[in-house]
Write a structure and sequence with these properties.
two-stranded antiparallel sheet, disordered N terminus
Length: 423
């Protein structure tokens, strides 16, 4: 997508991207803890978000309308879920549909890419007075980080440019990994620098920072120090091999397909296996205002093996029960096909899927009209979706944190868990 900017990849920029150093984030370390209602018992320990940047067409993926004037040329195929059809270009996903459930009637009021991305990554609409945290940052904060040296929230692939750590500490900001085939390149020591020399440099840096901090007491200085601490911890982490998919057996690699998205999904599984709480994998270019049908066919060619391979692999390793896999984008596409043979933005009824994490599989929730233009039953709000995710993780959404402006903010304001999925 054209509205997604690339990030520099030098070591200095790596540290900046990974952990940030904004004063607003650093000032938000304190939070308010009133008495909270008891949260549901956690069934999930981690989340993998398959983010379809640009807004995927629900009519060409998980809510096809064969024979309708809005249906398009893609055919629909049966799945393992009785009475549920999906696109013919997702045959492998159809074969594992018993592991996932489809939400077909999600709605929102944000047809703009930037605001919709923010909503679908935070559970909140944009507010000029509050910077809300990324879903993964919040999950990492609530559940804690178990993989020594690794961040709790990692995004793999093109930067979705949606949300950072918000009012949470800056070290909880998502770590961006763009280089799927060489993810550790920026962590390598420069020529002539060994681990002993690195240690000397680290001690010198810490001494300089401590001296500066003693004279300039400021939250921004503390945030800057934490950024270096986290970056150095990452460089020394015993779990760095989790980024390297080259050690995987050929059979496993084949399961995910040969595309970049499939390789990123395999990396996500390895990271969760190592203890990372949240991994987001991006598949971009779903903003199909023109040439929708050729483009969606090509995109599904990447999505199908990657998504099905991930679900199959997690299940084989007995990880799916505690790992939730979410597929979604910022909105859907119009039932009407425009003059450029494309579909435009649509927020009245669009699709997402949920799998694992103790949720029921093999279900289709909600029903849209014959053209896909309207919801006929069971509308699902974005807040309902987030409430379901948080609930499976045992996170109490009524808990409040203090925003950058000193305002108490709930983890989620509104929404109810989707009862049809609570197994």
């Amino acid at each position: 997508m054209s509205d997604c900017s690339h990030c520099a990849t030098g070591r200095r920029d790596f540290i900046r991207i990974a952990f940030g150093a904004s004063a607003a984030a650093a000032l938000s370390g304190k939070f308010h803890r009133p008495l909270y209602a008891e949260a549901r018992k956690a069934k999930a320990k981690a989340v993998i978000l398959l983010w379809m940047q640009g807004g995927p067409s629900q009519l060409d993926t998980f809510d096809p309308k064969p024979g309708a004037e809005t249906g398009g040329p893609h055919k629909a195929v049966e799945t393992k879920t009785k009475g549920s059809l999906i696109s013919e270009h997702l045959p492998r996903v159809a074969a594992v549909s018993d592991k996932l459930s489809i939400l077909r009637t999600i709605f929102s009021k944000d047809p703009n890419h930037d605001t919709a991305r923010y909503l679908l990554h935070t559970g909140y609409r944009t507010d000029p007075t509050i910077d809300h945290p990324h879903l993964g940052s919040l999950i990492a904060k609530e559940l804690g980080m178990t993989a020594e040296g690794l961040p709790g929230c990692i995004t793999v692939g093109k930067d979705s440019n949606s949300a950072g750590s918000g009012y949470l500490p800056s070290e909880l900001a998502p770590l961006l990994v763009e280089k799927i085939d060489a993810p550790l390149e920026d962590l390598k020591l420069p020529q002539g620098v060994n681990k002993f020399r690195l240690g000397d440099r680290e001690q010198l840096l810490m001494a300089q920072n401590a001296g500066f901090a003693s004279v300039h007491a400021d939250a921004r200085v503390e945030s800057h120090e934490k950024a270096y601490d986290r970056a150095l911890a990452l460089m020394k982490s015993p779990h760095l091999k989790a980024f390297d998919i080259s050690d995987e057996p050929d059979e496993t690699k084949k399961l995910y397909g040969g595309g970049g998205f499939g390789r990123a999904c395999l990396m996500a599984r390895r990271l969760v296996e190592a203890g990372v709480r949240f991994v987001e994998v991006t598949l971009a270019d779903w903003d199909t205002h023109a040439d929708n049908f050729n483009r969606t066919k090509s995109l599904m060619g990447e999505l199908d093996p990657g998504m099905s391979g991930l679900l199959t692999d997690l299940d084989r390793r007995k990880m799916l029960a505690e790992t939730m896999v979410v597929w979604m984008g910022e909105f859907g596409r119009t039932p009407r096909v425009n003059a450029g043979n494309g579909r435009d933005h649509w927020t009245k009824a669009f699709s997402a899927t949920l799998a694992g994490g103790g949720l029921a599989g093999g279900r289709a929730i909600g029903r849209t009209s014959s053209t896909g233009a309207e919801t006929l039953d069971r509308p699902v709000s974005v807040q309902d979706l987030f409430s379901t995710i948080y609930g499976q993780l045992g996170i109490d959404t009524s808990k409040k944190y203090m925003s950058q402006t000193g305002r108490p903010v709930k983890i989620l304001d509104g929404g109810e868990p989707i009862k049809e999925l609570i197994s």
